[in-house]
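Sharing a chain and its predicted structure for anyone who wants a worked example. Both blocks are below, sequence first, tokens second.
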Amino acid sequence: MVAEGELLWEPGDEVVASARLTRYLRWLGRSGGYEDAWRWSVEHPGAFWTSIWDYFEVIGERGDGPVLSGTMPGVTWFEGASLNYAENALRHDEGPGMIFVSEDGGRQELSRAELREEVARVRAGLVRLGVGRGDRVAGYLPNIPQALIAFLATASLGAIWSAGSPDFGVPSIVDRFKQIEPKVLIAVDGYHYNGKSFERSAAVNEIAAALPSLRATVWIPYLAAAEDGRAPQQAEPTAVHAAGHAAEMPHGQVIGWEGLRAEEGPLEFEQVPFGHPLWIVYSSGTTGLPKPIVHGHGGVVLEHLKALTFHQDLGPGDVFFWYTTTGWMMWNYLIGALLVGATPVLYDGSATHPSPAALWRIAASEEATYFGVGAPYIMASLKAGLQLEGLERLRGVGSTGSPLPPEGFAWLAGQLPGTPLGSFSGGTDVCTGFVGATLLHPIRAGIIPCRSLGAKVEAYDPAGKPVIGEVGELVLTRPMPSMPVCFWNDPEGRRYAESYFDVYPGVWRHGDWIKINEDGGCVIYGRSDSTLNRGGVRMGTSEFYRVVERFEEIADSLVIDTGQLGQEGRLLLYVTLAEGAELTEPLERELRAALRKELSPRHVPDEIRVVPGIPRTLSGKKLEVPVRKILLGTPVEQAANPDAMANPEVLRHFTGS
């Protein structure tokens, strides 16, 4: 075990002096250090967010209206301002515009000029299909160049983008896209994963049939192009292929990607209000209809400029690689690299094919200066005994998706001495991190160094009072511009208000447990709606997993407390065993002893059960709440939507109490 808080990295004077955050603070004229700057940013949000607009010289008209007015959840930002995300993303000239790598070793690079030309061509194609301001364009796409190009073209028109990854099942995609009534669907014929190809043509036909709003479906022959050894955008469906699809499409015309981009057109940008919808992202949809979360042009531009520059220290000349699919908000964050002049690396494929080191090797071969990944991949790398090499250009590593145990911090510090690890936590809801790191902070095992600039994060006790040094509900007591503009089809804002403001009126409740230390450092303990409550003591699940998954015999785990209000339940530990391992009596004794010693007697489970897999969302998060519902009697088919899960077949192993 690594002690929480153990010092692993400390910035030297040269690092601090050259940090982009330091330059900004110097420009501001503030010399009181990070905590002073953070306090100013949350106590004077109007001045802070105006400084972000001015410092980055955002392209647009700021207007003379108030920076913010109203109270949460009804805040209006930069009234009278106008801008366009795509114009700000495409204004830089230094370095490649985009790098794409596929699982099978394929690689493609576009210069900034080539990226602008492709966006202009696709923009012209969308105009021919009747797409304009406010229309929705949906992408059923892997993390490939066309996804980025189509998004930027859509945004340039003031139209609204929404994406789903092709590993999502048809019902899951229909649940999302049917709510937003897209005019155009852009889809692939299949995708590659873990050394295999997955045909999705039939799925696209089903999706299109369920969307009567469609005027056109654009086919990208991704699998066909790979078979021919061509880049996807250079391939056009054969006449028979296109005709076959057209015969099955009940709504609108069918064209290929090459047809969409066939004609040149001007690269122009529709100026839209600050809060005009940019994209629609979705909640996981595992326990109900996915919430269609709308973010605005202005809020995303300002937030991503701030976060990527000051918390990731990214700028022109940097290469930014974060492993994600188009169905996770980290894709939206990844492509924000364009806003700060960095180059995004898009990757389509498995994180562990052909070996567990696959992502590290891509980071090395593409000379990434910043590499980000979900916390489970870091822990899997540790367990696999990987030895990292070829990462000399790496200046930072990011981790998100779930809490990273101290052992993950320490492993990376040992593998990449001198390279700081930034653990971040936020959500799809704001498309950024509430808490994270900077180059001004030391890195300590298990600790997220700071609350993000402009994010008034607090920990609330059961009485709704802020606490320091104690675990409480993660709340935001001041607004951020990247908070949702609205939920789609929620004209009175009821669903939006119920999602975040039903517990503390006027205060955003995020649903995580957090502890904020005296120095501003934070620890996330998992979801507050899946808390363990033993003998009246609340316990987060992340510290539990930290102990259990340290054992070589344990590949994954899930802990559930079946207790209900006023009624003590059972604490059940489910484990997936590593290959060749068995849950022997000695191993059980060791697990119980470790939990008792390193956590408390309350953490000792009533029963340990072996299951073939731990249920996870498509973005890799453990499904604690649905499993708890199943154990309390909810039928499996009602507890979770299988199409929103990575491994729905394992749910049947979690029945009975």
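Comments welcome. The longest helix spans residues 112-128.
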